[in-house]
């Protein structure tokens, strides 16, 4: 099967909205070989605990790939028919790219191209950060702007787009 027959699903929502759980259920219900690409970094003990909890909640039925920067390279390495790949999440990836002063335009374009050529079913999760007030500092505003541009690119390529609030999915596209 190809992306054209499966399509990519993009899942957006706020913090603790239920978006990751919803995305995981989409993958599990598909019956394909499960791959989980985690983009988060454990910058402190609290984040390390969150990552450990996510791993434990998923259990042993997932192949976990931790990739904070080379998301496209990771996706290309594990792509294949009969697989489902869950990416969680794009906003953590954006943070990592910003911290490493990467070329955001090039990275985003590369990911959008990868989405179009993937043979696996992709389910991509991200935090919607554009619904709040304008951040008070430049870096936070740049982060919000980068995330918004990336979300638009991925939503344009995705077959299905969901917004999750209070654990409830709202289908926005597809």
UniProtKB/TrEMBL annotation:
EC numbers for this chain: 2.7.1.156, 2.7.7.62
InterPro entries according to UniProt: CobU/CobP, P-loop_NTPase
Binding of GTP, residues: 13-20, 38-40, 55-58, 66, 88
Secretion signal span: none
Active-site residue list: 54
GO molecular function, one term: GTP binding
The entry's keywords: ATP-binding, Cobalamin biosynthesis, GTP-binding, Kinase, Nucleotide-binding, Nucleotidyltransferase, Transferase
Pathway recorded for this protein: Cofactor biosynthesis; adenosylcobalamin biosynthesis; adenosylcobalamin from cob(II)yrinate a,c-diamide: step 5/7; Cofactor biosynthesis; adenosylcobalamin biosynthesis; adenosylcobalamin from cob(II)yrinate a,c-diamide: step 6/7
Stored Pfam families: CobU
Annotated family: Belongs to the CobU/CobP family.
Stated role: Catalyzes ATP-dependent phosphorylation of adenosylcobinamide and addition of GMP to adenosylcobinamide phosphate.
Record-given protein name: Bifunctional adenosylcobalamin biosynthesis protein
